[in-house]
């Protein structure tokens, strides 16, 4: 019988070729529709599995698992994935540029989402409820109202990004691309042509997502059993390990395109995925719980809310100049390791 660590390693390695194919499909979509839509499609397909699994856990009353996995997904995308993209992209390219408008909009929305999680958490600690249900009813009402507002903000963000201000999100030209174009080297991104049709791209994304869903299910299942034998804490597994394992394919895609000096696409995958989880997946879980009678709230434990707020602040500092290099990647990865250490000893 195959041991649980070996089973986990096999499923993790199975994601590597899928990540390479997913990266090629995402690049092809970006050539056809731009990095914004390419990154959005990649993030959406990458998060579909996570959203489905979260809703299934919610309906089974596993509120702690839902909160830990979704929060961990935001942290891993913001710090680990973006950090690795900056680091490995910086090793291949001295300095990289990305869209300043997109970075500013993404950073402000992530800060809003962090505040949306912090307010119910603070209310649970500081407010007192005198009516039926006391503090729990108060926090539940605040969480549901906050979830609706965050969902509306995500809809506004999509409209701003895809409809009213699409010109502000055009791909940022790279110095390397201009140099290649002037010296007659390999074709730049603007000179390349998409190789796949839209139907083929969507079909491949669908198949890859289905295979990743199966591999992720084995990953999570083997990790749960492994945690019982290894003694690792549930907080560490749920917030750190499971998001990395479940989103490994999407994570590697962002790093791969960053090494090819396509930082707008890499940021669209990494930061765009964080926004989608923070402004859609988490509020959507609250609304689904509201509709099905499951009192899931945005009342995270205080340390998790603080870690998210500090992570968003650090990412905003790092991306303020709309340029990246490997040292900025080291800073983001270091913060993720610090948070991971805290969860490990929690």
Automatic annotation (TrEMBL):
Residues 1-23 form the signal peptide. The keyword Transmembrane helix applies. GO terms for biological process: intracellular calcium ion homeostasis. It holds the Pfam family Na_Ca_ex. The keyword Transferase does not apply. Keywords: Antiport, Calcium, Calcium transport, Ion transport, Membrane, Signal, Transmembrane, Transmembrane helix, Transport, Vacuole. Residues 171-192 are annotated as: Disordered. Residues 12-162, 201-341 form the Sodium/calcium exchanger membrane region domain. It is a multi-pass membrane protein. It is found in: Endomembrane system; Vacuole membrane. The chain crosses the membrane at residues 37-59, 65-88, 109-129, 141-160, 196-215, 235-257, 269-291, 326-345. Its main location: membrane. One of its GO terms (cellular component) is endomembrane system. One of its GO terms (molecular function) is calcium:proton antiporter activity. PANTHER family: VACUOLAR CALCIUM ION TRANSPORTER. Belongs to the Ca(2+):cation antiporter (CaCA) (TC 2.A.19) family. Cation/proton exchanger (CAX) subfamily. Vacuolar cation/proton exchanger (CAX). Translocates Ca(2+) and other metal ions into vacuoles using the proton gradient formed by H(+)-ATPase and H(+)-pyrophosphatase. This is Vacuolar cation/proton exchanger. It comes from Gonium pectorale. The lineage of its organism: Eukaryota, Viridiplantae, Chlorophyta, core chlorophytes, Chlorophyceae.
